[in-house]
Write a structure and sequence with these properties.
140 residues
Length: 140
């Protein structure tokens, strides 16, 4: 019997803030072991970082706002959603390319941040323009 050909895993982008952690945790638990991609979680303080149940090829990056400067001069450190938006836009710049993986699943939380509104639209447009099948979901 010939060995079965393994299907490629879904590429994922999951991005949210500390208030989205229960949903991010659930999403990660539901991913197949073959999934690959990136998770960005923005937190205010280093003490909020924890271990999440990500498949082996899914990288979790913690964005600690108190460690990052803000683009807004009057703020001591990054505004809520600011670091997350920058990370997601950088990811989109690298992954929203024609002829790349045809299917991407995107979940973006941090719904109460104005920084994220424009980011969601940019990612949706970038993936669609690259000819990819896009499934974008937004956290509540």
């Amino acid at each position: 019997m010939a060995p079965s050909r393994q299907q490629p895993g879904d590429r994922v982008l999951i991005a949210g803030a500390v208030e989205d952690l229960p949903e991010i945790h659930r999403l990660l638990e539901d991913l197949p072991e073959t999934a690959y991609g990136q998770v960005f979680v923005e937190v205010a303080l280093e003490e909020q970082v924890r271990i999440l149940p990500a498949p082996p090829r899914v990288t979790v990056s913690w964005l600690v706002r108190s460690d990052r400067p803000s683009a807004v001069p009057s703020l001591c450190f990054a505004d809520h959603g600011e670091a997350l938006a920058a990370a997601v836009l950088a990811w989109a710049g690298e992954w929203c390319l024609a002829d790349s993986e045809p299917r991407t699943i995107v979940w973006i939380g941090c719904s109460d941040s104005p920084w994220i509104d424009q980011t969601r639209a940019a990612v949706q447009h970038g993936l669609t323009a690259a000819g990819q099948q896009v499934q974008v979901e937004f956290g509540g």
